[in-house]
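User: I'm curious what two different proteins look like when written out as structure tokens. Can you demonstrate?

Assistant: Sure. I'll show them one after the other, since each token string lines up with its own sequence. Here's the first protein:
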Amino acid sequence: MKNIFTLSKPPKPWGSRRKSQHRSPFFILSITIFTFLLLFIAYNHIPESLLSLSSKTLDPKFSQCHTTKAISPDKKFFLYAPHSGFSNQLGEFKNAILMAGILNRTLIVPPVLDHHAVALGSCPKFRVQSPNQMRISVWDHAIELLRSGRYVSMADIIDISSLVSSSMVKVLDFRRFASLWCGLDVDLACLISLNTQPSLLDRLRQCVSMLSGLNGNVDGCFFAVDDDCRTTVWTYQSGDEDGVLDPFQPDEQLKKKKKVSYVRRRRDVYKALGPGSKADSATILAFGTLFTAPYKGSQLYIDINAAPRDQRIQSLIEKIEFIPFVPEILSAGKKYAFETIKAPFLCAQLRLLDGQFKNHWKATFLRLKEKFDSLRQKGPQPINIFVMTDLPVTNWTGNYLGDLVKDKDSFKLYFLREEDELLAQTAQKLATAGHGLRYGVTGMEKPCPQRFSDVLLFIEQTVCSCATVGFVGTAGSTLAESIELMRKFDIEGKYFGWCLVREISCLSLTVKGQLDSLALKFCLGEKVRF
């Protein structure tokens, strides 16, 4: 299709050109009006978010870095762009804590994003959104969360208090950072909604747009890291030569079929972005995604598992292996397990609707059925089951979950609903606690009214971590991996032991054969005599 704005044909060869023809003033006027109308229509159909990110629409005063008396001149900040579901966001949050610690920067704590708000793509297929695109999407969504009054900080859900109190990491809530950085005369964290203040919303969009990197780097102010998983694997004190080729490279088929020409190199993050580098002089260092995962003998983006010559970072690596939920969420999960279920139970985490999982119902249900068949042979019935799934209860009819509901002699099912009072109570407690706003700039620690709505997922994970009979998760689900990690750390006593079984006798459960190996270790951890 031809470009609608191309109004003239390309010139013909010199030997074939005609003499110019006389055009009437009316014809020229008509063309001018027509062109103006096209431009007007096109302008009014450009999304507002894109217009707000255009350097031509930016107020000149936003082109320079803003500092206030509340932000110390020697402070340096670390930004990144999380994506996808909560488990992926949590993994990136851990990586951000690590990277900010290595580079000695204050981490700007992002919000919890809606599950499908921002997508990365596929690193193994070398088909991902660029860091600029990721940052634009994340900050646009963050402003939408502020606008609609649904903003929840990662630090409201994940307990980083021990990391901050031990000075392992410095953090600042994104809302408070944006308020200070953009020179706003209000604390964004104290606004329930931005809908009533359109001028403030526009100003925020203009200021935050610079954080996307769309307008380029600003010396001494802003540095955008545009190296992503297609070209870079970040390391730290790995012993490798800086810039050496990574073991995972695009294969010949991918190079030919998709015309991929990327070369992945392993780079030391401290050498590339630390002292002495151009990035180090910038007040803000902005990454795209920090997602990584093992793949073909390497990591997709970040490969930092040890710091042999840096004890501070080594301690940080060990500390962030597991970061628990805040106490209000842990208490809610434990309360449901001990006051509603009131008996040994198994947790079934079934991811059935999202991505690749919607095509593997048969394998998911088969694994669960095999576990149930084993339990039915060993112990009494009914078997108590806590179900954690993205499939609505109204759609359980006609599949294995529906069959479990009908078989009341063999199974007793438990599950949480959005309208349950426990969720409302927990949301209120989180709003009162305001964990995310406890860390920040001196003078801005005052409490602000908060609003929480979606806490179901977090409480469900905690309930599953308390399942003494066992846990069956969906293969390949990062959520299942998170629950397994919670169970591991609770069993080994590396945290508070929020699922300590007081009402249930480990001895009686063992005699009845209702404890799996994980629960048996849990009981032994309580020094129960058998």
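Here's a second, unrelated protein for contrast:
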Amino acid sequence: MGKSQKKRSMRRHNPMRVPDSHLPKGLASASASSSKSEAILPIIQKMESVDPAERKWACVAVSNLIQNDPSTRRLLQGKNIVGALITRLSDSEEEVVVEAAGSLRNLCIDGGYDICAEMYNKNILTPLKTFVPKISSTLSQYLASPKTAPENAQKLVYEFADNVITILWCLSETSNKALNAINQISLVPFLMSFLASRDSLPMSTVTSAAQCLYVLTDENPPIIEEVRTNAEYTACLLAVVRSTDMPPKLNGKDKDTSDARGSAFRVLCCGILRNITPIPPPSIAATVDLDRDVVLPTLEPVLTSIDLAEATQAAQHAIDNQESIPQLENLSLKHTPKSDHKTASELELERIETRLRTVQLALEILTGMCATLPDPEVFGGGSEADADAPDGVDGENEDDEAMDDAEDINMTVDEASQAAQAPQPPAFFTSLVAPLLKLVHPTALSFPPLGSPSSHPPTSSALGAIHISALESLNNIFLSMATSLGGRPSGLAPENGRMVFDAVWHALAAVGTDISGAGQERRKQMWDIGVGVLWGVGNIWKGALVPTDEQVQVLIQFCSATTDISTKVKTIGALECLAQHRESVDANRTISSYLLSLLPPSATPPTPTEPLLQAASALIDIYSDETLPYDVNFRQGRYLDTLVRSVEGLRKAVRGIDRKKERELRIRGEEVRDNLVAFIQYRRGLGL
């Protein structure tokens, strides 16, 4: 059973906002589903025009054409639009360069890994490297004397810098080769200059710089060392997180957007601080317990800051009321929309996406923290809220209020006096598990419909990422509880376990079991991670979870259908836990019969080694106590005979594990083999 450890994943921070996986491979399917294919040739032609106005028009048109349109994006990619835009980065006209960078940025964030890899392979870093010192110089001039700075300084610092920085952070996740090349550019002082000047710059640009630094400090030793050993940098990051000030005083939607970006900025700086820990003296950050006093107090409110159902309704309303965009053929060079032109509905959708991405980011950081749970010092309440409490008042009152407000967490009891005496769940169970469970349940926009794209891919991408990250956090919480404490912490009753198991099960039921179609990768991920959470919960509350016929049948069908070895192991683990409810004799029989069918020689085709070991181990665990009511199944079903017949096949499977390449699995296999032999001898000795 493995944790969802936060390790470098090339798609982790930059998921594809507008996936094209629902389309069959190749350009033919893209051409058939795109309504703008005829507009592509004029764009390619104008990209090479001698008239700079036409070149600028072509660059802007790319951004407008690809917006939420993966078919047209694929067609453009097939016409080498990436290479053409990279060429325009060296254009003699500055406005063309700026617009080309904007289109490349949009291609990066919409298209994800494949397009970023193409950009790197077509040498985009060569022009990008020349922009960094130019932007730095202009930024210094602008901040020192805005009135005397060059005429285009603001656009260069704001828009162009934002585009360049975003491209760099997307590229840094393309491959280790690309990351190493970006490490050589000396980006840290450049990026930190934006964070240091945050009060004088637009929040969108500063947030992009923080996002880039967050990605670059993710398990990247050279950059981590450069940031953590600079006391000025770490003090700046800590000041951002501790500050509640929001930039420019705005009203209405602009204020909402600014607030959302400000929250994202603080969460990113939390992530950077966590990436670079431990921080050495003399930095002020070295004197702070970052997890307890900085990170958790920042992340916990973010988790409860949004209701996904309400956000989905707001997004759907904006989608339904989207203003029409002028057709490309009806636009003149004088009336082309700017690359940053956005309608009211688009701005609303952008604001919602920013809030959703902030929650996703908080969950991503939390997943790493949950791998070390439970730490009572960190998750048990010692925080800045306690430290700041007046004399005679401790922080427990706030924890008590939070527990009272948490839905469905505390045990249900009939008498108030019993409730007062009943042990309360640990603080982290209330402050983390409850909000995480709310975030795993899908909404109407969480996944694209079967066989077609989402009505707004960026919103679906963000929602799906939230559900998956919340499940990963829950997976690590319950795994850590099982491995660190060896069982259930005091204060957690069977009702708590059933509540968590049912909440996750209902979320998976809402996802549905039709998860193998094109474009449904996120649904499959939900199940792959979700069964791991069910296993973790089952391990903590083993014997307390009452299985339903639906749960047993669906898990067996899923286990038989999945080809992923790890997912199969986790599903067997979840079934093992459900089989150990004392009174559920029928469910035990169904599950054990399925597990026995996975053993040699009856398994056809042969069960892969890891699931085979898990099935054998599960049967040993389930029937280790012959006094349990469901042991009648073992005796009446003559399970002992089946286990005896499986021994030779199991031994053969263990011998087939390469001791050098898969040492841990070989050790595990030998342990299961020996335990099975000992178990058979024990049951024979009972004479039952």
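A detail about the second structure: Residues 547 and 578 are 6 Å apart (CA to CA).
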